[in-house]
Amino acid sequence: MADSKKFLYPAPPELLSSLSIRHALKYMGPGLIVASVTIGSGELVMASRSGAIFGYTMMWCFLYAGIFKATQVYCALRHYTLSGEHPMVSWGRIPGPPLWFPILLTIPTICVMPIAFSTLPEILGTFIHRLLKMPLEGPSVGAWNHEEFWLNLWATTTLVGCLALALWSSYDWVERVSSIILGALVFAVIISAVIFGPDLVKILQGMLVPQVQNYEPWITENIAYRPLIERSPWLEIALYLGAVGGGTFDYIGYVGVIREKGWGLAGRGSASREKLEEATKNKEDLKRARIWTRAPLLDTGISFFFVILVTLLFATLGALILHPRQLIPDGGEFLTVQENYLTALHPKLALLYRTGVFLAFIGTLYGAFLIYRHTVAECLISIFKNRVPRASSPLWRRWVYSYCFIGGLILVWLPHSIAGNIIDRLTFSTIIGGATTCGLWCFAMLWVDGIRLPKSLRMGFGLRTIVLISGLALTGLGLKTIVTYFG
User: Fold this and answer.
1) Residues near 162 by Cβ (< 8 Å), separated by ≥ 6?
2) What is the three-state SS of 4-22?
3) Which of 236, 296, 468, 486 is least crowded, fewest Cβ atoms below 10 Å from its Cβ?
């Protein structure tokens, strides 16, 4: 009690004060959930799709987007840890119409959420249908043809199962499951990639040299790929940029999760700039504040390292195995063609891949329910303040889970002529909540860092430079994809 009266910042745990690899791994918390949330559509599908279509040439999308997004997330987590105020609340002070920036992020974020809860169950539902070798043709059921009805039924079953898990599980259990999923995937794809021996020179060129390649003749001359041919390569880039580590709608909730961790002032109430300035005049308080920033740095750094690593490995396997065989994860083959990654080593490894797919997609949907609960809560609290329940209120769980579940089901059962196919919906969601809003987020963090924090706690020159570069790159790439999409 005496310590809390004397110092603003709580004493950091010994784990942060004396860092080691073992200690660092204990701070892989909220970031692992976000990593697992993106595995289903990100690494397994989109990274593989990139390698299958373009070989090694689009790997720069995953490397740079991963680095830029890690920077974006870290500076937000750092701000929350130091000020006790979620960035969405801080951004309400940006000059202009009242709350314009939080509203700019909130409306598209909440609108596109159900898309994830329709596309992911549909992808897994299609995989289940193919796995069980059920007929693709048969009598129609109501307004749906035979295949569409069964795919929708499998998708509904998947969504119901993941909702049940989300309702009857705890945050700690989510972390453990996320750790297992991420670790197993990294181990499996590393072994496969090493055995097949990729061209390291081409990988380095693809990662470091940004280029936009047109579709190869084997694609443009194949009528089966006509929907792909009609899409600009820039729309594929939009998918890839959104695939790495998620988007704005993931990160708003991700930042809110650390309230439960109690890092620094997060979850302890907002401290005014004047209070922060007064506190940091005390050398011990300043020391504590700086030590606390290690927690979000470790969580973000380690988690995004694994995100980038796994994404690049799946892109590499797509280039190594799918590209030469002219196989693209698309339509009814979003997950089946990737089975070649392991069956090329031994046919019996198909079971390992199939098990991994189920774990990855269940973990993705499971984690999405948790993250999006925090996302909606933080968005609406930033706008309506005390007129809505606190972020910890169980009401958010009930409302958000219902919204995502019902919205997902509606999109699943709507005809594709109305809702669009899986790629159409994923493209729209990444255009709306992808690179552009991530870039604007970086600029907003630069502004709020200078206004909200005292000089002793602000980002250093190096970090500010990286945040600025990230903002420029993500905004520029995002605007290009928006112009292409709506042009």
Assistant:
1) 121, 362, 365, 366, 369
2) HHHCCCCCCCHHHHCCCHH
3) 486
Contact 316, 62 (CB under 8 A): no
The H or E element that residue 30 is part of is helix 30-38
Can you tell me the distance from the alpha carbon of 1 to that of 10, in angstroms, rounded to the nearest whole number?
10
Q: How many C-beta neighbours within 10 Å does residue 141 have?
A: 13
- The closest alpha carbon to 258, from 11, 77, 36, belongs to 77
Q: Quick one: fold of 26-486?
A: Amino acid/polyamine transporter I (1.20.1740)
Buried/exposed code over 408-442 (b: 16+ C-beta within 10 A; e: otherwise) = bbebbbeeeeebbebbbbbbbbbbbbbbbbbbbbb
Contact of 323 with 92, CB cutoff 8 Å = no
Question: Residue 364's pLDDT is what?
Answer: 82
**Would you state the structure tokens that stand for residue 404, as one six-digit string?**
């995502």
**CA separation for the pair 28, 388 (Å, rounded):** 31
- Average pLDDT of the chain to the nearest whole number: 88
Residue 429: HSE in the Cβ half-sphere, 13 Å Cα cutoff: 29
Identify which has the larger pLDDT, 290 or 417.
290
Q: How many angstroms separate the CA atoms of 412 and 151, rounded?
A: 9
- pLDDT tens, 241-253? 887 888 898 899 9
Is the pLDDT reported for residue 24 higher than 90?
no
DSSP alpha helix (H) spans, 137-247: 146-167, 171-196, 200-208, 217-220, 226-229, 233-243
**Domain extent listing, the chain:** 26-486
Query: Which residues, 6 or more positions from 328, have their beta carbon under 8 angstroms from its beta carbon?
Result: 49, 52, 53, 219, 225, 228, 322, 337
Return d(Cα 444, Cα 87) in angstroms, integer.
9
> Bridge-partner residues for 141, per DSSP?
144
Quick one: pLDDT at residue 2?
Answer: 44
DSSP secondary structure code for residue 141 in this structure: B
Q: Give the residue from 243, 307, 315, 311 showing the smallest Cα distance to 70.
A: 307
Q: Is 421 left (phi over 0), alpha (psi -120 to 50) or beta?
A: beta
CB 439 within 8 A of CB 474: yes
CA distance 255 to 86: 7
pLDDT for the residue 362? 81
For 291-296, what is the mean pLDDT?
A: 92
Cβ pair 178, 363 in contact under 8 A: yes
